[in-house]
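Hello support,

Our group uses your service weekly, and this is the first time we've seen a run hang past the timeout. The protein is Substrate-binding domain-containing protein. I'm not sure whether the cause is the sequence or the server load. Input pasted verbatim:
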Amino acid sequence: MRQNRTLLNVGALGAAVLMLVGCSSGQQTSSGASSSGPVTGDITIAYLQKQGDQQYFIDQAAGARTAAQELSKPGASVNVKVVNLGQDANKAVTETDSAVAQKVNGIAIVVPDQKIGPQVVNTANAAGIPLVASDDSIKDGTGAEIPFVGFDGYDMGSKVGTEAAKRVTGKGWSPAETGVLYAYKQDLSVCADRVRGEKERYTAGGGQGKAIEVGTDNSVNGAQSTASGVITGNPDIKHWVVMGCNDENVSGVLQALANAKVAADNIVGVGLGGYIACKSWQPGSAPDGYLAALYIDGHDVGGDAVRALVNSLRGGTPLPPKTIARTQIVDAGTVGGTSLKCT
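Update from on-call engineer: The timeout came from a worker crash unrelated to the input. Re-ran successfully.
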């Protein structure tokens, strides 16, 4: 097992939760088992991603392809077909149908909307095709979560909140003049988990200020647009602590603060992803308040999703319920020791 991930295999799997795997033509029993047994030949996996043009998901696709190459052997190659779903839930449904029609052996999906979970899971189940949720958890029609590969949202947020509290300590900012802004897509459970961790650990770490939540679409432009009105509407706040669901949210808020002429010395921004935050730490970059970020590596998640599917397909064994990747806080002084690529 690679050092940069933790595999949580919690034993026997419930009937509605997990699928034993086999060829795409295999019929699944009520216990989720495929009747066709292990796959001995070539394997094709469809990796369906939301927001596939974001650097994190580009890295994820690259990690999936690298893992496929590593797992390929003579007479039993592994191929990955990556599809960018954008933020289109309907496309996610049609591309799942297409993957089934193409008789792929396995599917990894990052859904644009978790509400379509039962639909895509049922489609894969009916065809006997094992499916893992990547990054954003989804449930089947009974409400049971399916196998998941990604990060522990609450733990991620906890690290961000702890770091933000540490960065604020000693600044002497008046709580009455400090705003703590959390920007995230509020109907996405993984974002809610991250922000809950941020809030709780920021407070536990001694961080103070007026908590403000901003609903966004998880994009830079979306966060900037929404935060602008919030900043204008709080003229008494002189200092800002910024956290959110991803780097895009924090970056968008920081741009809105810059437009509002808030000095970088009055901002503590802690990102989640690191791929945008690291641009602020490059030589010659002007300070913008982006002080740290939680580094998450899309390569790991993409690779882990492919490994989980291939190992299960070849072994005829259940998929692990959860595969959790490692994360770490980085800043200008430590980012050079990682493989983080700035975008």
